Structures are given as C-alpha cells and as structure tokens.
Amino acid sequence: MRILLVKMSSMGDIFHTFPAISDIKKQFPNAEIDWVVEDSFKEIVQWHPQVRQAIPIHLRRWMKQRDKQSWQEFKAWRKALRAENYDYIIDAQGLLKSAIVAKCAQGKGIDGYDKYSAREGITHWFYKRPHEVDKNQHAVERTRQLVGKALGYIPEPKLNFGINQNFTHIQKNPRKLIFIIGTSWVTKLWATSEWQTLTRTAVDAGFAVEIIWGSAEEQAIADQIINACPQATRPMQRLSITTIAEKLVEAAGVVGLDTGFSHLAGALETPTIALYGATSPLKVGLIGDHTRNLQLSEALDCMPCHKRHCKWLPENSQDTPQCMADIKATQVWAELQKKIAHY
Question: Where is this chain primarily localised (predicted)?
Fold first, then answer.
C-alpha cells in the first residue's frame, strides 16, 4: 500500500500529524508513506521512522514571488510528483492550497474532509472520498480520524507521536529546564518580568535554566532575563531544529508559549507547560498527560481574540496584553513542578 499525505505546514501542524502516521504503520506495517511538506519542515517530517520520504515543496515562496521562474519550478515539481502512483492520497490540511497540491498527485483519488469538516469547505470538490470529522475536536484527533476513515480503521485511544527513538542517545538531565520565550505574535508573548521571576525561582531551586531564542528580538529578551539572573544561559547562536529537539529531550521540564517548539516538547513527551492568552489551546494546544496548557482561570471577555495586536493597547505597542500579563510566574512554577514530579 502506497500512501501520499499532504500536510505542508505549520510546525505545530506537522507534530499534530505524527500520531496518525504511527496509527497507519500499526494497522498496515508494510505501508509506504510519503509526505508533501514545506521545504523548511522537511527535516522534522524525516524524524518519523515510518515516513518513507518527505517531498519538499516551496509553495510559500512560489505564491509570494508569482513569477515565471516560480511557475517553471512548480511544473517541474508536479512532473516529479506524478512519476509516482499512490493507492491513497490524503489531504490532511483541508485548505484550498493543499487540495490543489493533492490534485497534482497521481493515484486513485483523494480523501479529505467533507465541506462541513474542512477548514475551507470548497476543498470537498477536489476529493473523491470526503469524510465527516467533527470540527470540535483537537487537531491531533481530527487528523487521526480522517486518516482512519480514509484507510478503513478506528484509531486506538493511546497517542504515539513516534519520534522519541531518534533521540535515545540523549541522556536526561533531571536538573535542567528549557524556557522557550519567543513566538510569532506579540500578543502571545509573556512579560519579561515574569520570565525573570520564573528563572530566578528555578535557579534558586537548584535547576540549570537555558533560554531558547530564534530572532534578534528574542535574543534581546533572553539577555534581559540573564541580566536579572546571571546563572541562566542561552545559546550563542541560533540553533537548528534538531539541536533544539535534543535539548528538549535532555530537559526535565519545559516552559513555552503558543509556538511550534512547545508542541515539539510535547511530542517528545517532556513535561511541558505552555502559556495561552490571545489564542485558545482547546483545538490546537499541547496534548498528552505530560503537558499542561495554562491560561487565566477566569478568562477575559475578549479571550481568545486570535489577533496579532491587542485592541486594548496602542498601535505597535510591545507591551504584554493583560491575558498574558496576569499569568504569574508562581503559578507556572507550581504547575511545572507537578508535571516534573509525576513524570
């Protein structure tokens, strides 16, 4: 059985798809699984040992440039894809762009979400076999159910992300914590003063704290935290995704924001606390008993706004929105200690 899975982005979505891959191989040990993914996430997809090959696509760049060279590159990519023939083509993203990409493949028709289940309902016209999947579920379960319906099985309750075996060479450090301070939206950031308090609390409790950063802005925040607590450290250079994964496996616990690396920590089954304010963890938060999605116990009326800018703050403000500022370091520390003690 040859299967093509289309799930191109984002980082968190990639991790959310891993349990479905593990399900397939448990049901069909001889299945060959190829996966179309944005080139920047190819490295991640290849972590799952049951993926035969990651097929990189540069769709974001092509859509941005929209020039002759991009069109020629796309046609060459499509020709190479159509050289293969698949028994099943599954669009697990449910967007118009992913449906179009799935349509480029050669096979016996496409499986995907029906018009009431897909993120963009128009996609059902591209599918030979549309499937109903409840939208009021976590993204992990939606993907597992879609794939199960496409291939004719019911997923078992237990999740298996299936990537830990790539990191068995990493030794766990029971006194090491990783803090993931960055994210793509200003509204998702936590107050630097709270990071400083949390870091000081961890260091005073005997933990080594390493702060992960990925941009100049995040590096500046990391330096502010270290200035307040010099025992904390940060990498001198921006790290590769694989190196960050190794650090997350090594750690006894992780605190992060609504970002792909927090999802990675959860997928690696490291005790992880993720902080949410402007966004909701109900459908796309961390999943598993070793994780905790933390937000205000009494939500503000505007939560979740799913906005990149807080309407209560001046335009272009870098201040922390109340939904995040009111999450206190003492609460985060207490929740982290519970998870570390249990796992």
Answer: membrane
